């Protein structure tokens, strides 16, 4: 019984920490400051003024010939975020071009995930 309670307690700690998100901002030529949020299950969001919002699922990871580790996030509109995980350098490629633009990046910070209430609208004909 003690083992079961201990396991349940540890599981509670693990699942609560998995709900956090990280967020950072990038500044790239040709667009206002963009906010990148990384959530659980590989979801990444990209936001910039005025009301622009894109999503991506997962990352593609590569190791370059020089040993540098690169992570590429491809958003639904075709924009790509490229991060050299070895050096911290950040580039961005807009959907209509293959040109990599160097960007500056803010520090990563933890933010609380928002838990939305479930809403059952099956009774509404127009939904």
TrEMBL record:
Keyword Signal recorded: yes
Source organism superkingdom: Bacteria
Signal peptide: 1-20
Name under which the protein is recorded: C-type lysozyme inhibitor domain-containing protein
Keyword list, A-Z: Signal
């Amino acid at each position: 019984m003690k083992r079961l309670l201990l396991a349940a307690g540890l599981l509670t700690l693990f699942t609560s920490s998995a709900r956090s998100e990280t967020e950072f901002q990038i500044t790239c030529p040709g667009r206002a400051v963009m906010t990148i949020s990384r959530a659980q299950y590989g979801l990444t969001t990209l936001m910039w003024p005025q009301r622009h919002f894109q999503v991506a699922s997962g990352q593609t990871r590569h190791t370059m010939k020089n040993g540098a580790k690169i992570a590429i996030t491809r958003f639904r509109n075709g924009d790509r975020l490229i991060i050299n995980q070895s050096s911290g350098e950040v580039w961005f490629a807009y959907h209509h071009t293959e040109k990599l633009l160097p960007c500056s990046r803010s520090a990563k910070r933890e933010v609380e995930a928002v838990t939305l209430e479930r809403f059952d609208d099956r009774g509404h004909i127009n939904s």
